[in-house]
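As agreed, record passed on underneath.
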Amino acid sequence: MADRHDSRNFGSRHHYIFPDMLTSEQLMPLTILLAPIFSTLAILLVLVLDVRHSPKSLWPVKGNVLAMMCCTVVNWGSLVFYFFYPEIFAIINAPVFFALSMVQVFFYGFIFHITRLDAGERFPRYHYYLPAILTLALLAVSFITPFEGQVEIIKAKGKCTNEDYRLFYMVSNSKIPVRTLYSVVYLSLSFYRLRNYRKRVRDYSANEEKGHLRWLSVYLILTTGLTPMPIFKLLLTERLSVITSSVMPTYYLLFTFQYAYLCYYVVKEKYVLMTDKEVNDSHKSTAITPTATTDTDTPQLKKNQLTREVFDQFMATQRPYLNADLKITDLVAELNINRTYLSAFINSEYGVNFSSYINQCRLKEYERLQTLPEKQGYSPQELALMAGFGSYKSLLRFSKEHNIA
């Protein structure tokens, strides 16, 4: 009876045969597995409803997150079949492998689009090739491996019980190492891309709250911390029942929080997205053309092309800085110049980048509003929004970074 009881243990290495009725010991791990599935489905539903009402320019961004969540649901759901229905898992093994590999690809696709600043930059198709090749390899190995042998390997939970099926064992059980490798590679690419984006976005967007993508840094750090967990679980397969009852619920909870966190910022559109039209227009020369560039690719400004007096008058009368989502391309159309020239002009005349210059204007407006008698009843938060800041926190952060009391 003891041996039979052990064979029904959720984390046992022995063959697992799903009984007609779940025991109390099996009900707990099943509940733990179902929790992240339903929570991810809820997040997926929110994203679907949001995408339906989003402009087409945001579809590549939100579509990648949507596809990422679909793959995540498949991955979580496959664990139920892996532990309780190995015969079914053997049938869906290859699609699960593909979904597991594509999670990181779709996430990097999301990162790629929200940090894209060059007109000719397109998401490389070769990112899809390796997951497809790995999936085809598993399909080929499954084709030459008897179905009973596949089920036997799956039931063994990480142990090769028959040398005749070692090839299937090696390919099928490479999921976690492949996933971990993908996570490391794409996290590195994401951090690198985010770093380069931040260097350039200050010359494009004056919305510091959206443009800096601090929330994305938090998400990437959280993802980095969770990356070793699958390997940790793999190394301690013999104690899987212990992990499931203690560490794994926390692991699933953190993953759910991670996805909900990402969903919130995607739905709230807390990022600055440059559309194809804006990218192309910003690279066109209009009434004013910059002269030859220096070694640092900064145009040499010609005198009398755009004077500080003319620009100051434009800013004072039009007050474009009151728009919290102001981008440099918004001024390009008004001034009839190109983006590169305007960015270089601001750097040359005022000694700061576009974002800092606009926030300086907003800070002056905030200080002016504080002196108006009719604004005395307004809170600092309300005045900050009136001055063009995205939030009062943005005002405080800008003041602190520039040592402004």
About this structure: The chain has two domains: 2-274, 277-401. Confidence is low (pLDDT under 50) at residues 1-20, 278-304.
